[in-house]
Design goal:
single chain; 271 residues; alpha/beta; Rossmann fold; ProC C-terminal domain-like fold; 2 domains; 8-stranded mixed sheet; 12 helices; 53% helix; elongated; binds NADPH dihydro-nicotinamide-adenine-dinucleotide phosphate; binds (2S)-3,4-dihydro-2H-pyrrole-2-carboxylic acid; amino-acid biosynthesis
């Protein structure tokens, strides 16, 4: 196994960095003693040290020096500044993984010293519960083994595929941002049931489980979603009445447009 004996570092322990650290440690891929993280925000470091048992520091150089693979989990807007502070401590023995939305590999590589191995990944927040959907893409100095390492890391917290970099903005609009499109759907479906008299707790459990079950069927049966929808929809039954309302409100167009707009924003962040 190519990850054997390697140490993993995170620069940035905000929402996504913390989700990945928790997911990866829970999956047992790295023992917490082999995971290092740094951030300017000490409470998130303290929480990870206490609850997960990883090594933490407020100095990014500590993370770099202690790690073989360094995940940049900071905002796209500050990535250049963060790289400037660590680049001279990164040699060709280390692999850098950027999860920053929109930021192109060529632009990341050009901020580091020549020859730096870079992989770009777009994960999602469901890494916390080992159900992330991630895509990775390989930089010009990264090897096939580096890509395999990245697929193994992100595959440990969900599904991970490799794509060409021109598709990363589409992935960002779809699966990177996607959980945030679905959480309001869960809440709104539960609201409908609360309106009809169900208690909030039961409504949320049934709404979330309904989405989980539908997603699992789509993945496991590999049947077209239209066909799965037809399996639920009895002639003159209840479901078709609900579907008519969703179509009247433009559900398909709304979701398509959300993915397209988010992808556009990812492209903007890369300019
Ligand atoms: N959230 C998500 O679902 C996803 C996010 N991403 C990507 O992940 C990256 C992180 O996003 P997210 O976790 O949401 O953002 P957060 O703002 O939650 O986390 C970023 C963290 O980096 C810290 N930070 C700021 N400056 C530095 C520095 N110089 N050195 C070390 N740490 C620093 C921030 O501290 P402070 O708050 O004090 O500034 C913060 O704790 C982004 O590039 C985003 O595009 C990708 C996929 C999904
Ligand atoms: O909203 C964002 O910019 C980040 C990237 C994908 C998900 N969250």
């Amino acid at each position: 196994m190519s990850l054997e004996g390697k140490k993993l570092g995170f620069i940035g322990t905000g929402k996504m960095g913390s989700a990945l650290i928790k997911g990866i440690c829970n999956a047992g891929l790295f023992s917490p003693s082999n995971v290092y993280a740094s951030d300017l925000y000490e409470p998130s470091l303290d929480e990870l040290k206490q609850n997960v048992g990883i090594n933490v520091s407020t100095d990014n150089i500590d993370t770099v020096n202690n790690s073989d693979i360094i995940v940049l989990a900071i905002k796209p807007q500050i990535i250049k500044k963060v790289i400037a502070g660590i680049k001279d401590d990164i040699d060709s023995d280390k692999l850098v993984i950027s999860i920053a939305a929109g930021v192109k590999i060529a632009d990341i590589e050009s901020e580091f010293n020549d020859g730096t191995r870079v992989i770009r990944v777009m994960p999602n927040i469901a890494a916390t519960v080992a159900e992330a959907a991630s895509a990775i893409t390989q930089g010009s100095n990264a090897s096939k083994e580096d890509a395999e390492d990245a697929l193994e890391i992100f595959g440990a917290v969900g599904s991970a595929i490799q794509v060409t970099e021109n598709l990363m903005d589409a992935v960002t609009g779809l699966s990177g941002s996607g959980p945030a499109y679905i959480f309001p759907v869960i809440e709104a479906m539960a609201d409908g049931a609360v309106y009809e008299g169900l208690d909030r707790k039961s409504a949320l459990v049934l709404a979330a489980q309904t989405i989980l079950g539908a997603a699992k069927m789509a993945l496991e049966t590999e049947t077209h979603p239209g066909e799965l929808k037809d399996m639920v929809t009895s002639p003159a039954g209840t479901t078709i009445r609900g579907i008519k309302v969703l179509e009247e409100y433009g559900i398909r167009s709304a979701f398509m447009q959300a993915v397209i707009e988010s992808s556009k924003r990812s492209k903007e962040l890369g300019k």
